[in-house]
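Researcher: Quick sanity check before group meeting.
Model: Go ahead. Protein one:
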Amino acid sequence: LAVFRIFDKDRAIADPNNTTKSVAGGEIQSQGLEAEVNGQIRPGWEMTAGYAYTDFKYLKVPVNAVTTGTPKHNVNLWSKHTWRDGAFKRWSVAGGLRSMSKTYATSGTAANPIRIDAKGYTIFNAQIGYQISPTTTASLTVNNLFDKTYYEKVSSTSRQNFYGEPRSVMLALRTAW
């Protein structure tokens, strides 16, 4: 569990006269808490859960350059089950999610500010694995399982707006010696 308060002075923001450039933008305060718990619920079943709450506000900044930057709510959950005996011995299956609340940014001129909203999103991931030997495992992981289109970050009308990663598949072989 962590509680925090951060003061950020002279943060780079879009220049009100030229949105392709940045200027020092005043003072920002972020405060909130983060909590994480992980462990083994029972033999073969592991779980990790995390939550972060961030209150983000500008203390001194031009009205046309406001961005939340960080989502107010962030939830992460991952669960993995590994069979220790029976027909599925040495196999594992896992799944989880990452959920973020909405964010936004404003840009444009002081006389004509434009607001850009990024909706909140939830991404699901899944994994299947096999314990080949005591030191070697193979796994197949699918991130963004449902291929959701979402904005990972929004900043202005002209730059630094990034889509989140589309569905990806990774086959991994891990060994220790």
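Researcher: Fine. The other one?
Model: Protein two, sequence then structure:
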Amino acid sequence: EQSINEVIRRHESLRTRFIMVDGEPMQVIEPELSLRLKEEEFSSWPEQQQELELSSRVAEEVRRGFDLSVAPLMRIRVMRKSSLEHVLVVVMHHIISDGWSIAVLNREIAVLYEANSSGASPELKELPIQYADYAVWERERIRSGDYDEHLRYWEELLSGSGAALEIPADRSRPAVQSHRGALERFRLGQELS
């Protein structure tokens, strides 16, 4: 909890919410915000039942929506499978995070957790800029006309491209796509992983 709250302190986007002002969305960054971790105990459950229940609870957490006007736009749960094995579930709205951010979040939580659990000082430098600074820079760049030049370049380059991207596959595509998918679960042994 201490590690996650430090990450929230470091990143304004994790303290952000959105309100409507005169029909337009407006970003509000909370000066301070902390989370209490929701902990659940599963160590007394049989392993198979544990896995089913954990999967069900994770799916439930992912499906639950967010009210964009209320920070934080993230939820965190710790599910204890045993004294040595826990599942950390972090669900964030895409409006405050993206794929690149997840790697940063994971790295920072790991560094802070390691330091906090060993009593050491974490070695993370303060951030010189926040995402809002980047957004201001990007808006200024768009206003400068530089954006229009780049947009024209890509529009010209991509003009005439087909609507569908045909990528070589291991078998031919059906005439009518079904959009059916599948999920395959498996475990890698400790030696391999």
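Researcher: One line on it for the slide.
Model: Residues 99-118 form the longest helix (20 residues).
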